[in-house]
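Issue 218. Parser rejects a valid record. Input:
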Amino acid sequence: MTTTTHPAPEIMAHVVGEHELPSAARKIAVLARQYQWTLRFSHARGTVLGSDRVVDSHLIRMTRPGSQLAAVWLDGEFEMARQRENFFTKVSAADLLDLIKTIGTTGQESLFCET
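Output the parser choked on:
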């Protein structure tokens, strides 16, 4: 069995302030806060899995009772977002905006959930 190693990050994941986020991420944070989400921000620097490319990554974790969203930016560009249901579902940037507003307004995960 062949095992590949992944280099340790240059900067371990750590909590950062909103002012340290990329511009687009700050805009998401402002919107989420308007819809009463609890926010946490973090930053790390290291290589992308399966690549030698070194990137700065920023993460916003958004929570409300019964709902969780997470969004990632690599080198300042939106990479992906995930919604927590029974497992994490990958969502687009447009869907992330809709989820922030819809769940923030209704308090329910009305998008992407089958009834």
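Fixed in the parser; the record now loads. Residues 20-91 form one domain.
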